[in-house]
Amino acid sequence: xxxxxxxxxxxxxxxxxxxxxxxxxxxxxxxxxxxxxxxxxxxxxxxxxxxxxxxxxxxxxxxxxxxxxxxxxxxxxxxxxxxxxxxxxxxxxxxxxxxxxxxxxxxxxxxxxxxxxxxxxxxxxxxxxxxxxxxxxxxxxxxxxxxxxxxxxxxxxxxxxxxxxxxxxxxxxxxxxxxxxxxxxxxxxxxxxxxxxxxxxxxxxxxxxxxxxxxxxxxxxxxxxxxxxxxxxxxxxxxxxxxxxxxxxxxxxxxxxxxxxxxxxxxxxxxxxxxxxxxxxxxxxxxxxxxxxxx
Length: 295
Ligand code: OGA
Ligand code: MN
Known about the structure:
By secondary structure, this protein is an alpha+beta fold. It has one domain: Double-stranded beta-helix, CATH 3.60.130. It has helices spanning 19-24, 26-39, 51-59, 96-103, 140-146, 149-156, 164-169, 178-183, 217-231, and strands at 2-5, 12-15, 41-44, 79-82, 118-127, 135-139, 159-162, 187-190, 192-194, 201-203, 209-212, 238-240, 247-251, 255-259, 269-276. Strand 9 and strand 10 form a beta hairpin. The longest helix has 15 residues, at 217-231. The structure holds N-oxalylglycine and manganese (II) ion.
């Protein structure tokens, strides 16, 4: 297995290894896992991807999420990002499917609005547009390391609130439907996620974050906006240009990502599996002191 660095200080392509190798072989998994902890975004090219193969690979990293209500793939282990309607035609730009893709074009980390946040997401390209539709990544670990020591210390002891309805509300007032709102109450997380393997800390931010615990609403929002700007500063991103057979996985604890636009009449079909964070991934320290386990 060769590790080829891709981005500005993070992201790497793994060559000479397939998803199936990693699913089947402990040593291959250990090497991929070490690369994941270090590089935060891993790219695999020329893979023969099936839903089952993607899930078997993903399961190596932890328990797969069950897709929430209101998403394509609900109740399964797959999130389908598609612009193809039930009639086989590309949906119009104001269709829910298209608006969901638009919401994914806001900088975010996956599942910070869930009761159990995500360790990693694994995304495979099944149908890609001729141009555009890239996925762009930044390292919130490198962003944290750009902060002065005083700000780092303060943020390590700060907590932010994340709400799915907040990020969706930036696209359309009713994009999060009542069922989704009821299933996904706001969650509060420490603003810095420390990686237990290498001890490196990362800002934990997303378009879902709307308030800072103990701060007046507008001051908290301003802090979040400033940190989002810092984390997504020009020249700090890796832009993944999708080719057929590509699979990309990322560390939701240490990155943000966003989809890039493409021409609305072109089809795009992507399949995501998402792995929940566990205590071994540093989850316990993310919870606010007031956190209580569900009954
Ligand atoms: C995702 C996501 C962006 C894209 O799958 O979590 O945000 O480019 N995707 O489709
Ligand atoms: Mn996402």
